[in-house]
Design brief:
Radius of gyration: 13 Å
InterPro entries: KdpF (IPR011726)
Number of domains: 1
Number of strands: 0
Shape: rod-shaped
Oligomer: single chain
Helix content: over 70%
Protein name: Potassium-transporting ATPase subunit F
Mean pLDDT: 86
Keywords: Membrane, Transmembrane, Transmembrane helix
Number of helices: 1
GO molecular function: P-type potassium transmembrane transporter activity
Low-confidence stretches: none
Length: about 30
Amino acid sequence: MGGSSMVVIGIIAAILIVYLGFVLVKPEKF
């Protein structure tokens, strides 16, 4: 159970990092 929860947290963190990256690179689109 603990391993699966860590995977979910990792996926969410990766999505947030990619989203923030796009916001910082192209702020005019937001």
